[in-house]
Amino acid sequence: MPKHAVRRVMTATVAVVGTLVLGVDAAAADTTPSLDYVALGDSYSAGSGVLPVDPTNLLCLRSTANYPHVIASRTGARLDDVTCGAAETKHFTQAQYPGVAPQVEALDADTDLVTLTIGGNDNGTFVNAVTACGTAGLLSGGRGSPCKDRHGTSFDDQIEANTYPALKEALRSVRAKAPNARVAALGYPWITPATADPSCFLKLPIASGDVPYLRGIQAHLNQVVRRAAEDTGVTYVDFSQVSEGHDACRAAGTRWIEPLLFGHSLVPVHPNALGERRMAEHTMDVLGLD
Question: What is the pairing mode between strands 182-186 and 235-237?
Answer without folding.
Answer: parallel
